[in-house]
Structures are given as C-alpha cells and as structure tokens.
Amino acid sequence: METPRGRYAGLSADERRIQRRERLREAALETIAEEGVGGLKVRALCVRAGLNDRYFYEIYSHTDRLLYELVDEQLAEVVAAVMGVIATEPADTRVRLRAVVEASVDAIADHPARRRLTIDMQTTDELRRRRTELVSVVAEVMLDQGRELLGEAAVTGVHAQLAARTVAHGGLELLTEWLRDELDIDRAQLVDFLVAMILTASEITETVRREMVGS
C-alpha cells in the first residue's frame, strides 16, 4: 500500500512538528520541576526529549520563548481551577473563600513544575512582570467576589484596591516561602492564615480611611 506523499510513519510534517513541540514542552516541565528555570538549556532539553537540537530551533528561537509560553499556560490553568471553584461553591463568603484558597494552594503545591515556577518567579524581569500580573488578577478576583457576595456592604474604591493588592502580594509571598520550606507550618495552617488574612482586607481599608480622616 502506498504511503501518502509527505507523510512519515503515518504522520504529516505538521503532525510531526506538533509531536516534537509537545515532547519539548514535557521535557521543559520535567526540567523545571527538577532543576528550576535555570536548567532550561537547549541541548539538555533535546536529550531529554530524544530530539536533535535543530528541531528545537524549528519551534522556538530561545529557551525563554518556551519558558514564558509554559508560564502563561500554567498560570492560566491555576486561574481556571480557581474560577471553576467559584462557579460551583455556594454564595457563602467563608465557605467559598476557603474552597478557593485550598484550590489555589493545591493547584500549585501538588504540581511539581508549578511549584518550582512559583519559587522562581522573581529570577528574571519578565518573570517578575508576570508575577505582578498574577497579583493583579488575584486582587481583581477578590474585589469581584466581594461585590458579588457582600453587595452594597462590600468595600470599594481605591483603598479597597490597595488592600486587595496588599493581601495578594502578601499571600503569594507567604505561599512562596512555604514552598521553599522556609515556614514551619503545614498546608492546613497556611490555608487557615491565608483565609483569615483575606477576610481582614476590609478591616485594613477601614483603618486606612480612619487614619486619612484623622490626619
């Protein structure tokens, strides 16, 4: 039986390229999990993926391109997991908040590559920029949930935005320190504290308002 023109082992050129891309991505995630982002070297990735070096450059101009593609996708998957929890949990502030925090921590801590990426998110200017974008997304989700769950009682305005960003920054930094094993607490204790910290965001805002009125 004649093999269709332009096909090899039953795959077209485009299909083989897609297959090689996936092998490189899998190799990169494994490398990040084991060595961090500093371990992403073209030759090492190709050896792990079982590919010739030239195939890497057919797809990516530099390892940074591959890294940032993976970072964006992994962050998007974490956000999607959180939004899925929000969509299914009842409209009870504490119940939903705890479920969201638990899902966020689990989505990162239980995925080796995401775990290491979170730790390495301040190693380059571009990763720091993405970390800042993540903080903005988390802060906006907090504000949106406050408006949805509390209605007119929700704290709004610039001070609410600053409080949300402060909590998002602080929460991400605590999570990162915990992932580095720098905090002598277990996962349940981390979740408990993050939940309590988020619940106090409105109190932070009111304190700032009182200070400004009194000044």
The H/E string reads EEHHHHHHHHHH
What count of helical segments does DSSP give? 10
Give the integer mean of the pLDDT values: 88
The third-level CATH topology of the largest domain is: Tetracycline Repressor, domain 2
User: Cα distance, first to last residue?
Assistant: 87 Å
Which CATH architecture of the largest domain?
Answer: Orthogonal Bundle
Structural class designation: mainly alpha
Q: Mind telling me the C-alpha Rg?
A: 22 Å
Strand content: under 5%
Secondary structure: helix percent: over 70%
Which key phrases capture this entry?
215 residues, mainly alpha, Arc Repressor Mutant, subunit A, Tetracycline Repressor, domain 2, 2 domains, two-stranded antiparallel ribbon, disordered N terminus
What does this structure look like?
A hairpin with a 2-residue loop joins strand 1 (7-8) and strand 2 (11-12). By secondary structure, the protein is an all-alpha fold. The chain contains ten helices and two strands; from the N terminus they run ββαααααααααα. Helix 1 (13-35) crosses helix 2 (42-49) and helix 4 runs antiparallel to helix 5 (93-109). It has helices spanning 13-35, 42-49, 53-59, 63-88, 93-109, 112-119, 125-150, 158-179, 187-199, 201-214; strands at residues 7-8, 11-12. The termini are far apart. A two-stranded antiparallel ribbon has the order 1-2.
In short:
The chain is built from ten helices and two strands; from the N terminus they run E-E-H-H-H-H-H-H-H-H-H-H. The chain is mainly alpha-helical and 215 residues long.
